[in-house]
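Escalated from tier 1: S-adenosylmethionine holo job.
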Amino acid sequence: MKVRALVLASQGKLRDCGIENPARDARLMLANCLGVEVHRLNLLDDSFPSEDELSKFWIMVDERCNRKPVSKIIGYRAFWGRNFEVNEDVLDPRGDTETLVEVVLKKKFKTMLELGTGSGAIAITVLAERFDATCVATDISRLALETAARNSKIYGVQNRLKLLQSDWFSKISGRFDIIVSNPPYISAKEYNELADEVVDYDPKISLTPGGDGLDSYRQIISNAREKLRKNGQLVLEIGYSQAEPVKKLLDGAGFSKIRVHKDLGSRDRVLSAQAADGSPVT
Ligand SMILES: C[S@@+](CC[C@H](N)C(=O)[O-])C[C@H]1O[C@@H](n2cnc3c(N)ncnc32)[C@H](O)[C@@H]1O
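Tier 2 regenerated the structure:
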């Protein structure tokens, strides 16, 4: 079967399985099997994939029908124009998180701390865009840090990135110009309502801290000021309904200039705040 026909046939199968974007998914998976960029797939329309390529592709289509995310089938996710390795050990970076990167890149800083780096998408993107910056990026998961290390080498930022296994600030010494985090923020109740596609393929620890979903913010915000330099910045991704409770936590911890930033869907997505004196509330 030629590539053009294969795209149509697999698209039909995916649609019958109830997959929302069958054309996009079919093309991404086929391009991956054939070892070409997805935008170049059309150039191969009249060629015949090998038997091996075909069997690999139809296995991928079956996996997608079983609700495995395309990124975890093909092994990477595009984020801020770069492809990041993703696997069962890391959260699939979300498009909404580009809002956090956008906010961070508007700030002035040389030293950054990222808490909960996962695939490393945030830290590596910022370092790739800011040649004069260095970053310490942490995660509680050793396997996530191994994935972030591989991603950092792909983009040549490994010499400016220190990866550290740490429970939030437990292993962090020194102070930073900016602290950023997209922590797990889904409540226990919302977690039980998530699609299988998310629950089965993103690590639970990357999605929810349990309870009301705010525990990561409580831990990060109550300790952040003593790790920030004078006028240091804290930038946090939030769930779209969490701006008010997280603003209260920031206010209570003595942060000023608290701002809410919206994502492309006009939902509250990021909070930024400043630590005037860089010292803890006593
Ligand atoms: C929502 S994911 C964000 C991953 C990545 N930064 C991104 O935006 O795609 C949260 C990350 O925090 C990590 N994490 C969860 N609890 C943690 C803790 N107590 N200390 C440090 N990292 C933690 C998880 O392993 C996960 O990688």
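The pocket of S-adenosylmethionine is lined by residues 91, 93, 97, 115-119, 121-122, 138-141, 144, 167-168, 182-184, 205-206 (CB under 6 Å).
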